[in-house]
Amino acid sequence: MSENDNLQDADGKKEVELQNNAPQEESAPQVEETTELKNENETAEDSNNESKVDADAHSEIEASNAEDAEDESNAERHEVEEKDYHAMSMQDLAEELNRLLKHHKIQTISKQVNEIKAEFNAKFGELLEEKKEEFINDGGNEIDFYYTNDTKKLFNQLYKDYKQSISAYYKEREHNLKQNLENRLAIIEEIKGLLSVEENMGSTYKTFKELQEKWRNAGPIPRDKYNNAWNTYHHHVERFYDFLHLNNDLRDMDFKHNYDQKLKIIERAEELAKDDNVNRAFRELQVLHKLWKEELGPVAKEHREEIWERFSNATKTIHDKRQAYYADLDKAYEKNLEKKEEIIAKIQAIADDKANTHSAWQKKIKEVEALREAFFNAGKVPLKVNESTWAKFKDTVRNFNRGKNKFYKDLKKDQYENLQKKKELIKIAEENKDSDDFAVVTPLMKKIQNDWKKIGHVPRRDSDKIWKQFKNACNHYFDRMHAQRKAENQHLYDAFDKKVKLLDDLKAMELSGDNKADVENLKTRIAEWKEIGYVPQNKRYIDGKFYKAIDDAFDKLKMEKSKLEMVKFESKLENLANNDDDTRLLDNEQNFIRKKIGEVKSEITQLENNLQFFTNVDSDNPLVKDVHKNIAKHKKELETWKAKLNKIRGMYS
Hints:
The structure is a single chain. With 653 residues, the chain is an all-alpha fold. It has helices spanning 31-40, 44-52, 55-69, 90-103, 110-137, 150-194, 201-216, 223-244, 248-272, 278-294, 301-352, 358-377, 383-432, 438-455, 460-488, 490-508, 515-532, 541-555, 561-577, 582-611, 622-650. α5 (110-137) runs parallel beside α13, α16 runs antiparallel to α17 and α16 runs parallel beside α18. The longest helix has 52 residues, at 301-352. The radius of gyration is 52 Å and the shape is elongated. Keywords: Coiled coil.
C-alpha cells in the first residue's frame, strides 16, 4: 500500500493520543505537513496491518479515484468503448474520433483520442512515405514534395476541435478546483476549532455534523491534492471523535451507523469478488472505496481491524482476478504477435519474388493488400514489442512498394516509348485521311491499324485521348471511301432495297390451296428476284434468306413428296444460277447428286442381297415385307435423284 493510502485512517487506526483527553494547540494545517505528522505517529499495529494489504490493489484504486475527484463525470470514461483502432483505416479512425466528440464528454475520451491519433499518424506516415517515394521516382525533387488528402484534413480539423474543447474545459475547471480546495481546507480548520470549544457537547456535535455535510458537498479538488486532503480531513475527524468520547452516546451512535454501512460495502465487495466480469467488478469496487473513504467515518476500535481485513481481502481477490485476466490477455497478445510475424514473413516472400508483368504485379498487390488487412485485424500485441512489430511491418511493406514502384517506373518508360510510336501512326493517319487515292491509301491505313494493335500500352492519362484521335482519323478516311463506293454502286443498294420488299411480301403471302397456281406464283417471285440482279457484296446474305423463305412456302404445299422435291430443287438451281460462281456451285451440286445416287444404289443392292437370306421364308413374313418396302422406297428416291441430275445437266447447255 502506498504511504498516502488512508483506508486504515478512515477507521482511526492512526490515532493521535491526547493527554488528559484534551485537544492540543495546533497551527493552521498544511496538507503536506499533516501527512508527515501521521507518518511520524504510525504505530507498530499500523505496520502489521499494512503488511496484510496488497499495496498494488489499493494504490490502483486510489489513483483512479483521485482522477475522478477532479470531476465526478470523469468516471464516465470507464463507459467509453475501447475499440481495436489498429485494425481501422484512416477514414474509419476519423469517423470514430468524430463519433467520440459528438457522443461523449470531452474529459472522458482522452485515452481513446490519444490512441486514435497515434494510429492515424502511423498510417498516414506510411502513406506519406509511399507517396514521397513515388514522387521522387517520377523525377520530382524531394524538397518540393507535399501531400495531403481529404481524410487527413478532416482528421486535423476534428483533432483541433478536440484540443480547443479540452483546453476550454480545463481552463474553466482550474479556477473551480482551486476554490473548492480552499473551501475544504477552511472546513478542516473549523473542525480543528471544535476541539477547543467548551460549550454544550450536543451543540458542538451538531456543528461537527454540519461541517461534515458541508465537506461532502464542497466539490472536486485537484487530483494531486486529493489523497492528502482526505487524509488530513480524516485525521482531524478522528481527533474530534477522541475528543467526543466524553459523550459516548453521540460517538457510539456514529460508530454504529458507520459500522453497519461498512458491513454493507464489504458484503457487496465480497459479491463482486465472485463476479467473472473483472473489469466491471473493479469499477464498482472503486465506487465502494470512494464511499468507504468519502462518505463514512470511523468505527469502534474492536471492529476496525476485522472489517478492514475483510474489505482488503475482497479487494485483493478482485485485484488478483483482474491481474490474471490481464495475464491471459498477454498470452492472447503473444499469439497475435505470432500471427503478425507470419504475415510479415509472407509479405517479405512476395516482395522477394520479382514479377515482370503488369498482371503479375496486380496479383501481388492484391495479395499484399489482403495481408495488410489481416495484419490490422490480427489484434493487439504485447506493448513492449508493439513499436518494433509495427516498424518491421512498415519496412517490409516499404520493401515491397520499392519493387512495385521500380517495375512501374520501367513500365512507364516503355509506355512513353509506345506513346511516341502511336503518335507517329496518328500523324500518318491524319496526313492521309482526306486522300482520294483509295487503291494506295487503303492498304496503308489497314497496316497502321494493325501496327497500332501490336504496340502495347501507353500511359493511362493519354490512352483515351490518343485512341480517339487515331480512331477519328481512320473513321474519317474509311467513311469517305465507303461513301464514294456506295455512290458508285448505288444501283446495287437500290436492288437490295427491292429485294428486302420482295422478301417481306413473300413472308406475308398466303397460299390459295391450288398447288399449280401457288407453284406458278412462287416461280414468278423467283423470276422477279433474279431479275432484280446483284446487291452489294456485304448484303448478299439476303439471297439465302429469300430461298429459305421459298423452301418454307413449298413445304406448305400439299403435293406428292417427289414432285415437291423437284420443285424445290428447281428453285435451288435458280439460286445457284444467280450466283457469280454459278459454274463452280453447279459442279459441286452435280457431284453431290452423283454421290447420293451411288449411295442409294448401294443401299438397294444391300437390301436385295438381304432377301437371299429369306429364300425359305413366306413372303407374308413381316421382315420380308419390310425389306421389300425399303427397296421400293429407295428406288423411288433413286428416280428423284436421277431426275435432279438430268435437270442440273440441262443448266450447262
